[in-house]
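Morning - zinc ion inputs below, output right after.
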Amino acid sequence: MTSTIEFLGTTTFRMVINDLVIFHDCWLDRPQSLVTYLTPDQVDRADYILINHAHFDHLPGTEIVAKKTGARVIGNAEAIRVLRELGVPEDQLMPVAGGEHIKLPHDIVIRPYPGLHCLMPFEHGAVPDVLTTDHRYEGKPGLGNLPNVPDDRLPSDQFRSFKRYIAKNQGRFSLWDGGCMMYNIHVPGQGTIFFNAHCGAYMGLLNDIHPRPDVAILAAAGQPCVNGDGYTGTANEFVLDCLERLGQPRKVAWCLHDQSPLPPQRIDTSTLEERVGRETKTKVMTLVPAEATGIFE
Ligand SMILES: [Zn+2]
């Protein structure tokens, strides 16, 4: 049986595995400045939704899809709190912290692991629209205090528009990430797909992810956060280290690189792709948004 994956922007993916529809993140209610590939109303089926963390670019839309389809939502306690307060029924909510084995039909097993959020650009106004993954820049933790910054103190209309999105959607996400989650999904007879949808990790953990992934979905954006420490390397160096520790999966695809409401608006991954091609046996899988592609072929 063929399993498919469809990239829906940022870190949101829809997979069909056997007869199950599984979302990774469900940010379908996006700001007008970004392309929307699928709206929550267009989703007629979902069985499971895995949430990376509770920020604005992972959650809004999840509550609509969960209520409409009855999907079970797996995520950190903060994401689950937000969804509970939005009225998603308790029996659909599954808080995780890492270390769980979640058994799905067809003996599919999902294993969450604790991850780390990338660092945020130190000064958004100084960040160019397009960054390359071989660029180093200063970072700090957290989303900042945008909703409380007066409009005339914001550097551009883009920031003011994003502030309005944040204000309008208060309560549909959290300013606290709640802890990023990585997910390893094992599909018997087909393979294993691993998600680390943020540019950070406790690196030693990656050596022990098992089953070893055949396919990895990795964030290729932002200043990496390595073991919670300051990191002087680039996103390229971070991702190459991740691939090595994961045993050089057969295929990798990027996320978090395509569009952002604030600078950098896009990440140029070309130097990363050259290095992956030259230095590993992993093949880069380019996912065309809103187009289903075989996961394990
Ligand atoms: Zn975040």
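Note: The radius of gyration is 18 Å.

O.
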